[in-house]
């Protein structure tokens, strides 16, 4: 690889602040999303039978500033699976995981 900067992208994680309502409940936290090359994203999203849950399980690697009943919620797979039981939450997280792959932050 000629560009050394690209090597850093191999372990990059995108912070995506989320603040949405679902079923009258506010969900506000920072999703930590794994950055993947275009070919991996294409494989993940275009494979036959791919669903939103698979996309979230593959790309959402953590979260921060997530509070429930006044206590911080640590990221773990079992809590994620609880959330993925609701198709609306799954779809919202999947959209964010995909959109984050294209988000560029301009610097002055």
Distance between the termini: 27 Å
Shape: globular
Strand content: 25-35%
Rounded Rg? 15 Å
Report the structural category: alpha+beta
| Helical content class | 40-55%
How many distinct beta strands?
5
Instruction: Tell me, rounded to a whole number, the average pLDDT.
Output: 94
Number of H- or I-type helical stretches? 5
Q: Can you summarize the main beta sheet?
A: 3 strands, antiparallel
Detail the poorly predicted runs: none
Secondary structure elements and their pairing?
Blueprint lengths: L3 H6 L3 E10 L2 E10 L3 H9 L5 H8 E5 L2 E2 L2 E2 L4 H8 L2 H14 L8
Helix pairs in contact: 3-5
Model description:
The protein has 108 residues and is of the alpha+beta class. Helices cover 42% and strands 27% of the residues. It has helices at residues 4-9, 38-46, 52-59, 77-84, 87-100; strands at 13-22, 25-34, 60-64, 67-68, 71-72. A three-stranded antiparallel β-sheet has the order 1-2-3.
């Amino acid at each position: 690889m000629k560009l050394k900067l690209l090597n850093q992208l191999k372990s990059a994680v995108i912070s995506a602040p989320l603040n949405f309502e679902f079923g009258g409940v506010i969900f506000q936290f920072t999703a930590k999303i794994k950055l993947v090359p275009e070919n991996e994203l294409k494989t993940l999203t275009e494979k036959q039978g791919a669903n939103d849950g698979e996309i979230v399980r593959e790309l959402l690697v953590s979260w921060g500033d997530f509070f429930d009943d006044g206590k911080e919620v640590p990221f773990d797979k079992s809590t994620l699976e609880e959330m993925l039981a609701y198709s609306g939450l799954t779809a919202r997280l999947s959209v964010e995981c995909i959109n984050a792959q294209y988000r560029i932050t301009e610097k002055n």
